[in-house]
Amino acid sequence: MSNLQRHWLAGVVTFVTLFGAGFGAAAGQERNCGDRASLLVTVLDESGSIVLPGATVVLRWIDAERMPVREATAADGRLRVCVPRDASQGVVWAEFGDHSSGQAAPEALVPGEEREVRLRILSSVPSGRLIGRLVDRETGRPVATAAVSVLGRPAEAESDRQGLFRLTGVPAGQHELGIRRLGYAPLRHMVDVTSGLTTELEIGLVREPLGLEPLVVSTTRSRRLEIKGFYERKHWGELLGLGTFFTAEYIERRNPLRISHIIEEVPSIRMGLQNARTGCRLRVYLDNILVDASVDELVLPIEVAGVEVYKGAASLPAEFGGSDSRCGVAVIWTK
C-alpha cells in the first residue's frame, strides 16, 4: 500500500469518526452562493480515479486583500467556495498529507457563474513547495506581475500585488529558480526543495540600471504549522492588522520563563491574560483544543512552535470564532 493510499484511508476513518452517520447528509448539502461567483474544486489521486475526502484545498485571492480559503473536501472529494464580491481571480491547489497538487488559476470568476477545477495529488515523486515574496531591493516595495518558474518545469507562477508567489508539487532536490520582470534584472537562484516541506524565500530584485546584487533569504517552514494554516494567518493577520504572531525563533531569542510572558507582550494584554480592551480573559487554544487550565501548567516555552493572539472577535479567523470569543483568543501550537 502506498503512502498516499494510507493517507486516504486515514482520512476516511477520521471523517467517519468525527461526523458519524450524519456526515453524509451534511456533505450532500450544496452551499448556495446566490448571485456570487462560485468555484467547485474536486481533489483526486494522481491517477484521477479516486476522490480524496479530507484533502485541504487552499485558495489564494490575487486581486483582493483577504485571508486565503483553507477548507477540507467533503466525502465526495469536492469543495464549493463562494467567491467574495471584490474578487475575480485566484490561485488554487490541494494538499494531502505530505503531498500536494499543482496549482491552477481558474478563468475569471464571474458573479452568478460557477467554475470547476479538478486537482490531482502528485504522489509518485516526493515533492515540496516554494513560497516567496518579491520586493524592490532599493525601496522594499512589493514587485507584482513577475514571472517565477523552476527551470526545466512547465509550471509558472506570477507574483501578486503583495509580491507573493507560490509553486507547488516541485520535486524534492536542488533546482534553479528563474524570475523575470520588465524593468528588473533577471534572476536565477539555486534552491533546495525538501519533500513535504515548504521553502520560504524573500527576494530583493534589482532595477536594471543599478549595479547591486539581488538579495535572497531562504528558510524552511515547520510542516506542522503549515498544515494548520499558521503561516497564512500570520501573513494576512500582520498585513491587515488582525493579530500578533510569535514564531519559535522569536520565543527562543526572548527565552521567557513562561509562555504567558510572551502573550503578555501584546499591547493591552495584562497579567493573567486579561484583555484590557474587553475587560475579560483571553480564551486559550492549545493545538486547536480549548483549554481552561493555566497554559503555563500545560506547556513550556521550549515546547512551543508558534503563538497567535487576537484581541477581539472582529479580527478572529473563522476557526477560532464563536459567541464566547469576544474577549479575544490566544492560540498556541506545540512542536
Structure description:
The protein is an alpha+beta fold and 335 residues long. It folds into three domains: 3-122, Immunoglobulin-like, CATH 2.60.40.1120; 127-221, Carboxypeptidase-like, regulatory domain (Immunoglobulin-like, Sandwich); 225-334, TonB-dependent receptor, plug domain (Ferric Hydroxamate Uptake Protein, Chain A, domain 1, Beta Complex). The protein has seven helices and 23 strands.
Essential attributes:
16% helix; Ferric Hydroxamate Uptake Protein, Chain A, domain 1; Immunoglobulin-like; alpha+beta; 7 helices; 7-stranded mixed beta sheet; 335 residues; 5-stranded mixed beta sheet
Instruction: Give the name of the CATH architecture of the largest domain.
Output: Sandwich
How many domains make up the coordinates?
Answer: 3
The secondary structure category is: alpha+beta
CA radius of gyration is 21 Å
The biggest sheet, with number of strands, parallel, antiparallel or mixed sense and barrel status, is: 7 strands, mixed
State which percent range the strand residues make up. Answer: 35-45%
Helix content: 10-25%
The name CATH uses for the topology of the largest domain is Immunoglobulin-like
- Spatial arrangement of strands, main beta sheet: 3-2-5-6-7-1-4
For the record, what CATH class of the largest domain applies?
A: Mainly Beta
CATH homologous superfamily of the largest domain - what is it?
Carboxypeptidase-like, regulatory domain
> What is the terminal separation in angstroms?
29 Å
Number of helices: 7
